[in-house]
What does this fold into?
Amino acid sequence: MIRMLSVCIAMLFAGSLIAADVKFDDPQKQERYEQLINELRCLVCQNQTIADSNAELALDLRNKVAELIEGGKSDAEIVDYLTARYGDFVLYRPPVQPNTLLLWAGPFLLLLVAGIVLVFTVRRRAQLADSDEESIS
Amino acid sequence: MSWRFAIPLVVVIALVAAFWRGLFLNPGEVPSPLIGKPVPEFSLPTLHDPALTFSSDNLKGQISLLNVFGTWCPGCHDEHPLLVEWSKSPPYGVPVYGLNWAMHQPSERAAAIKWLQRVGNPYAAIGYDESGAVIMDWGVYGAPETFLIDAQGRVRLKHVGVLTEEVVQNKIVPAIERLRAEEKQ
It folds into this structure.
């Protein structure tokens, strides 16, 4: 609670500092910048990307991303730079690794289970229908 | 009754267990990838005298705490008396270093000096980070945050949020005891 409050107060101060968004001369760099900041999570306002967030830290992170792009870093290098500091949590698209396997495979597992249940149900119904016909005849 | 009737029940119990656990997790506490790694290299002017530096070298050679604070941060005001208390009789002689996060406000330096004069200065040394560059290298995303650093200069623990008596007794001090036990081996 107190932490939230400190963040809010910090944002009050930060409001005056938020400058116009970064503009690159190179449209390709601009595109990479837009894409990156829309995939990185703001740690202060956790359900926002750093593109959406007005938090001071998000502004710093946007500027950092811009600086790294200008410095000729690749997207992968920029993502590595941030995960080395803030962990995988900054990624809106988590990497596929042992502890995220369930996250990535989960929907397909559910689909598989649903498929199996479906097959069994259809078969049983077919069997029931068959036996009904037999009992009628 | 077929065993199949148990399946939805088992699923529901598993979900309830998962959500129950989720209720007590703190999403505000993001695990730091720095744990176990050497402290990020940095060199900052000290708060009181810009001609002096406070650097990552200060954090090597003994167990220490690094506390991120700013005068703009109410949580920092809350935990401050506890830090002052700590500095008067440091458990196991562990010093507290300060990292003053100015959030691009040049007025923070004077504000912090004045504030510490009023409420007491528990810090063995204070680095002044106006741009937030060091803050970012440490993966700090709010204040207060407190790091425990071992004698080899590795980050061993990070506490996000206000330090309370409970946090100190149940988290910080036991962690220091573990580090000391490690050193003796």
